[in-house]
Amino acid sequence: MKVLIVLTSHDQLGDTGAKTGFWLEELAAPYYALKDAGVQITLASVEGGQPPLDPKSSDPASQTDATRRFEADAEARAALAKTHKLSDMSVDGFDAIFYPGGHGPLWDLAEDASSIALIEHAIAAGKPVAAVCHAPGVLRHAKAPDGKPLVAGKAVTGFSNSEEQAVGLTDVVPFLVEDMLVANGGRYSKADDWQPHVAVDGLLITGQNPASSEPVAHALLKSLKRS
Q: Is 124's pLDDT higher than 90?
C-alpha cells in the first residue's frame, strides 16, 4: 500500500507576525501508524522541499512519543526536508491521501488547485482521503463527481469553533473549519474540546484535533484493508 501525505508550505499566521505551518503530532503519529503497518509513504507539499513546522507544535507540552520518534528519525527528517512539489504529483500510484493539519493549510492547501484536483481525482477513483484537525479545510472547494461540495451530506469533523476560540485565533484564520464544513452541507459532529473524534463516511475520513491524528490513521488503514 502507498499513501501520499500532503503538507502545507504556508508559514505566516495571518498578519500577526507569528509563524505557523504543519502540526508535528499530526504528521508524526499517522506517519508511524502507517509505516509500522507496512505502508510506503511519500511526502509532498505545495512548494516542495522543507515545509514549515508550526513552532508551537515542537514545544515540550506538545511532544508525544510519536513526535520524539520522528525528531530522532534521520530517515524521516531527510524525507521531510525534500518533499515533492504537489503540482508534480498524481493520485495514480497511490492508494490514499492523508492531510496533516496545523493552521497553514487554511491559507494555501484550501485554495490550491493541485490539491483540490488531487482530492477530487482520488475520490472519483475510489481512493480514501483523510484529513485531521485544520486539514479538513482542504475540502473547502473540492467537489463530488456530481458537482456538489464533496462534504455535502457527509459525516465530517474538524477543528471546532470552540477549540479555535480556545487558542485565540478565531479572528485570525481565513475561515473556521467547523463553519465551512456546515456551510458546504457537511453533517458536522464533534467531541469535547481536545478529545479524539473521527468521522468516517465512505472514502472521506476526518479527525477533529491533534488527539485524533493517530485514530484517523487507523481508520484510514481499516479503509485500505477493505478496498
A: yes
- What residue has cell string 503538507? 7
Closest C-alpha to 199, from 179, 218, 219, 181: 219
Write the DSSP string, 167-189: TT-TTTSSS-HHHHHHHTT-EE-
Strands (E), 100-181: 129-132, 155-156
**Based on C-alpha coordinates, what's the Rg of the chain?**
16
> Taking the complete model, does pTM exceed 0.90, yes or no?
yes
Left if phi > 0, otherwise alpha if psi is -120 to 50, otherwise beta: which for 127?
beta
* Average pLDDT of span 16-42: 97
User: CATH number for the domain including 211?
Assistant: 3.40.50.880
Report DSSP state, residue 205: E
The structural domain count of the chain equals 1
